[in-house]
Amino acid sequence: MVEAKICGLSTVETIEAAVEGGARFVGFVTYPRSPRHVSTDLLRALGERVPTGVVRVGLFVDADDALLEERLATGAIDLLQLHGAEAPARVAEIKARTGKPVMKVIKVAQPHDVEAGIATYAPVVDRLMFDTAEGTLPGGNATAFDWTILSGRHVPVPWLLAGGLTPDNVADAVRVTGAPVVDVSSGVESSRGVKSPTLIRAFLDRVKAL
Questions:
Q1: Are 160 and 127 in contact (CB under 8 A)?
Q2: How far is residue 88 from each of residues 116, 123, 186, 200, measured CA to CA in Å?
Q3: Are 24 and 3 in contact (CB under 8 A)?
Q4: Cα three-residue angle 64-66-67, rounded to 5 degrees
Q5: pLDDT tens for the 210 residues of the chain, in order
Q6: Per residue in 24-39, is it b (16+ CB within 10 Å) or e — as a string?
Q7: How far is the C-alpha of 112 from the C-alpha of 68, rounded, in Å?
Q8: CATH T-level fold of 3-208
């Protein structure tokens, strides 16, 4: 069974579409340069709308301890997604300091990126995410990498596939990579940073059919 994460949510309507559609994970962005960034107060309010059993993911980019503590104090984050240049020691420190499970994003442009990412981060994380290295933002760039890089590859921890996924290509992506979990952000937007409940439901319907 393939599971799905809908990232970059910022409204009650899209939270409801994700939850009702069967998303296993919902993501909230803490990165001011992103059009999907949410304030601490909005994070708290949206997090309260997510039922038990759906994992609430907080996306951070090279965050300092103060920001992590501020966001975690909302009670709206179950899993930390580290999408910056965090070194393994920093990842381990965040995991120990917060007591939360941690997912590190590996930015992929060539096969070596996957190999190096697994070797470097698998020992210190709970999950890995493979995303495209292209784009101006850490995630949500509507660009896919060469999925065959992951074809048949053993990943020693639970992992997610991200980068340019849409309702139209997610089935092919899973077929090529064998991804157990898929992550989408820009692929379910009506315009940059604006999620579409209709596209969210369409994406989740495609995933459920896999």
A1: yes
A2: 12, 9, 28, 33
A3: yes
A4: 70
A5: 999 999 999 999 999 999 999 999 999 999 999 999 999 999 999 999 999 999 999 999 999 999 999 999 999 999 999 999 999 999 999 999 999 999 999 999 999 999 999 999 999 999 999 999 865 555 455 679 999 999 999 999 999 999 999 999 999 999 999 999 999 999 999 999 999 999 999 999 999 999
A6: bbbbbbbbeebbbbbe
A7: 31
A8: TIM Barrel (3.20.20)
Q: Is 37 helix (H, G, I), strand (E, B) or coil?
A: strand
Phi, psi of 126 (to 5 degrees): -95, -30
Q: Residue 198 belongs to what H/E stretch?
A: helix 197-208
- CA angle centred on 139, ends 19 and 198, rounded to 5°: 35
Q: Give CA–CA dist 105/208, Å, rounded.
A: 24
